Amino acid sequence: MAKTPTPHIGAQYGEIAETVIMAGDPLRVKLMAEKFLENPVQFNNVRNMLGYTGTYNGKRVSVMGHGMGIPSIGIYTYELFNFYDVKTIVRVGSAGSMHPDLHIGDLMIAMGACTDSNYGSQYEMPGTYAPIADFSLLRQAVESAERFGYPYRVGNVLSSDIFYSANPHNDKWMAMGVQAVEMEAAALYMNAAYAGKRALVICTISDHLLTGEVTTAEERQNNFTHMMDVAFSLI
To answer: What was the pLDDT predicted at 195?
Structure first.
């Protein structure tokens, strides 16, 4: 086990639970700590990437931010998996719909993650690796969404490196059945696979590429709690 704290996480080994629920926005993490955790203790504020450990229904769990994009989540989840011996990471975040039946506020549970990123090149695979979720987590999440009565879809997402694209090719991704776009799932799934750990991404649809519907930053931060309900049901 490598020495902790790490360059990006100020916690000592043992201060982070084996299961971590992560979000890109540190303020969303603070909301999760206040809403779901009993007796939360802050373990990280390096770069304002907040992290807390507490209990949920008597079980120890941590919540932490991962920032925006594959390079950022790649760093944080690598350190969690490999330096803090975290076993499971569930990302909750926002995504843009690329499917006519996936609406604002619906959940997108990412079974797989395509990407335009070069992140996977580090593994020097003799082909194209397909990053996928842990099936046990995926199955539990689907069962929870149905139990809660939350609208959801399961399928492939695109983890894009580019938010403002000069030449978007959304039609080509949609032609291959990709249902939503976000910016982190592929790296999380690759890190989990390489470390032999578990991961799942649950997103709330915040905007729609086909209809032009959008939500505000405040709405995304404070109102997208259904995905949190599902994520915490996995604990």
So the answer is: 98
Q: Which one is catalytic: 85, 161, 207, 229?
A: 207
pLDDT in tens, 162-202: 999 999 899 999 999 999 999 999 999 999 999 999 999 99
* Count of beta carbons in the 10 Å neighbourhood of residue 32: 26
Band (2; pLDDT cuts 50, 70, 90):
low
Active site residue 25: no
Concatenating the DSSP letter of every residue in 189-225 gives HHHHHHHT-EEEEEEEEEEETTT--B--HHHHHHH--
Give the predicted TM-score (pTM) of the model.
Answer: 0.97
CA angle (57, 62, 63) in 5-degree steps: 110
With CA atoms as reference, report the closest residue to 112 among 175, 77, 157, 179: 157
The span from the CA of 210 to the CA of 163, in Å, is 16
For residue 51, the cross-strand partners are 44, 64
Alpha carbons 68 and 53: distance in angstroms, whole number: 22
pLDDT at position 8: 97
